[in-house]
């Protein structure tokens, strides 16, 4: 979500200590507590115990808030305060989701009386969106756990959008919705950082808040308009400021739209796509990079095969580097150390640690591998099962 490292550490600390002192046979997750009266009564007695046990440690306020309010419900029917929506501390809303997911996937005594797969556990969380759990955070969690965001990035040829906003929760939700609809999204928190990114000349669209802490969104817009790269930059203001004179100044500086928060992210993204289409903005072919721990190579090859993608998938692992070349989804060549062709492919698909980068502008000069991607994967899996090199 782009939280600063200090805040993230405080929330992680809440995850470590949230069950301290909660004795008994029941695992008091927000889902159990929300569904069963016995769990609720036990949790009402125990929710303050971790903080009392650790009082001499002087835990950070963010840590204590996350633990103390993890049994609040998004619909306001939880405890101890009956707080609802985003008035519930962010750490508590995150802890509610993660604690429930951990229970569903590892504890056979959960409400389903069996451990669930990640897909089924995420589907169970989704049933309680807007009642127990924050719906936006559930969607973010689903994309991380199931790798859906990476799949969308691999398959899309997208415009690069720059979000300029100091609110990590707001921007993460918007970034998720934009990624789902085919945008490459970059987020920055300050006016100075935004100007540096924009000066690189790769941005197709800017979505900016007015209030940027020590900076100002209108000042950023005015500075951009004074540069060759920013003179005609498509720009949308997305802000909590509702003053008429501020909006008028923004339109004088040439913004495409002025949207006030809160606005449904899906509606805003649809509007952004329509605005870009109206301007017939050129689309750049953006590459994709990430870690093999996000998605293994066999899954990645399947995604690219079914999406009929063309390009070069470069892999850098601790013990070497390699490439897999695709033409309309077909694997046509592979390189790994001194290997080439099918043997290189079989060596690559075994990798579990490393980084990848997909260059969709690459065009293979020759076809070395003639088997289908599915046949290659089947043989690669067979070799892995049998421990073959």
Task: Identify the notable features of this structure and list them briefly.
389 residues, 44% helix, alpha/beta, 6-stranded antiparallel β-sheet, 3 domains, 13 strands, Hypothetical protein af1432, 16% strand, single chain, Rossmann fold
Named CATH topology of the largest domain = Hypothetical protein af1432
Q: Count the strands? A: 13
Largest β sheet strand count, sense and barrel closure: 6 strands, antiparallel
Strands of the largest sheet, in order across it? Answer: 8-13-9-10-11-12
Percent strand: 15-25%
The class by helix and strand makeup works out as alpha/beta
The CATH homologous superfamily name of the largest domain equals Hypothetical protein af1432
CATH class call of the largest domain: Mainly Alpha
Structure description:
By secondary structure, this protein is an alpha/beta fold. It has three domains: 5-146, Hypothetical protein af1432 (Orthogonal Bundle), CATH 1.10.3210.10; 148-279, Rossmann fold, CATH 3.40.50.2300; 288-385, no CATH class. Helix content is 44%, strand content 16%. It is built from 17 helices and 13 strands. The strands form three sheets. Strands 8-13-9-10-11-12 form a six-stranded antiparallel sheet. Helix 11 runs parallel beside helix 12 (217-225). The longest helix has 17 residues, at 90-106. It is flat. The two termini are 40 Å apart. The relative contact order is 0.07. The model has no long low-confidence stretch (mean pLDDT 91).
